[in-house]
Amino acid sequence: MAANKEPNSIVPLLSRALHRIRSTPPRIIASPATQPRRAAVAIILRVAPPPNWVFPPPQHSPDGVSSPANVPAPSLSEFFQLDWVNAPGARPEILFLRRDRPDGNDGGRMSGSGPNTREAHVAFPGGKTEEGDEGGLYTAMRQTWEEIGLDLAESSYTPVGQLDDREITTSLGKRLLMILSPFVFLQLSPQTTPVDPSPGTTLHWVPLSVLLPRPIGDGPRWSSVSVDASSRLAPRHSTILRILVRLLVGSMKFPAILIPASPYPAPSSSPLSSNADEKVIDAKRAHVESAGASPPLKREHSLPLRARRSPGDETLKLWGLSLGMTLDLLAHMAPAETRRGGGGAGGAGSAALLPPDAEAELLRVPVVAPSLASVFPRFGYPDVNFWIWVFGKRYRAVIRGWEASVRAGGTNDRRINWTGSALTTFYAAVRKALVVVIVVRAILVLLGLLLGGWLLFRR
């Protein structure tokens, strides 16, 4: 259990991951001329100090006024040398959002909810790039400010780096929607600055220990999310066709991790009162919105700062793109020998970040890209999965080439878009398999009708 583990044992792994992200150039995917849309998200990390940690009083200037703004922010290396960061009981955490009205494929109320439970999923703050944005990093910071009122430009936060770009597709990978850029941020202060979430948005600081495999963490609680295949294969307004596809193809299941539904608490050690929090937010908002050349950051009318949705019996799930980006982040925390597919413990570490029912071919890939497991669905009908395997020869060849490249030292890792190639070939196999399944089922139904008519005619 988390209470029996030493959370600060994860701090060195987090330090190694963030230094690796900062020193590793991300794979940038250029937007094609036919689809220039892009988006960006902010992956925000912090280290929560031990509950009983006593901080020294703030230093005062000669005139008796405290001036924390004059204290220089620590560098990444200096941060992980601070006493409260390495103290027993310090807990690395990652920020997720739960939205009442999520937008895009990475949102929505989950299916399969019981009568007394609700299922929703979590995501990262972020959104689409708008005209006037100075780049993906600016988009991630702007969207975070607009959505939750967190100013990542403050000295309390530092941009660490960027993970690899991701292609967001629809129609089973056939049409490109946009390119998504994930940016990693680290909170440098022990207390989180006041936030002002948009209506219907709750913040969840989740310990990394619940996401990391044993013996480092508690081991993720794997689950699944069922998605109606007709919602992705049939036109939205064609009810009859959607019913036919639902009967012939069934549902798709994506892996998910259960997240503790503990909403973001107001920091009890913060010296600011509720009124002071609101004044700070208003001052920051006025300062940012009055900036000169940069486009103004618009904020929606917000709920009271302290008002938060009671978690109740709601189940939160991490899946889809958000799960993929989280797994990419966790992969950077793995030892180098594991990332290169070393034997022994390395092989076990490679499979530890994957769901228990992951495809056998995925288990061949070192943890350099466990996020593939988050976007490869399994279908409810076994014959669909069988035909995907039959047509997956090119997909398996890509996986073997990827594995050989990583074991050889990763020299081709950054030049070849292995993730994109694997997704393209996998979804090509899915489309072929679905065509075969629908045709075979249609033939069987036709033969059944003919046989039934023949038997009735003989009587």
TrEMBL record:
Sequence ranges assigned to domain Nudix hydrolase in this UniProt record: 36-229
GO MF annotations in UniProt: coenzyme A diphosphatase activity
Keyword Chaperone: no
Alphabetic keyword roster: Membrane, Transmembrane, Transmembrane helix
Region of interest: Disordered: 98-134
Gene3D superfamilies per UniProt: Nucleoside Triphosphate Pyrophosphohydrolase
Positions of transmembrane segments: 433-457
InterPro entries in UniProt: CoAse, NUDIX_hydrolase-like_dom_sf, NUDIX_hydrolase_dom
Domain of life, per lineage: Eukaryota
N-terminal signal peptide: none
PANTHER family in alphabetical order: NUDIX HYDROLASE, NUDIX HYDROLASE DOMAIN-CONTAINING PROTEIN
Protein name per the record: Nudix hydrolase domain-containing protein
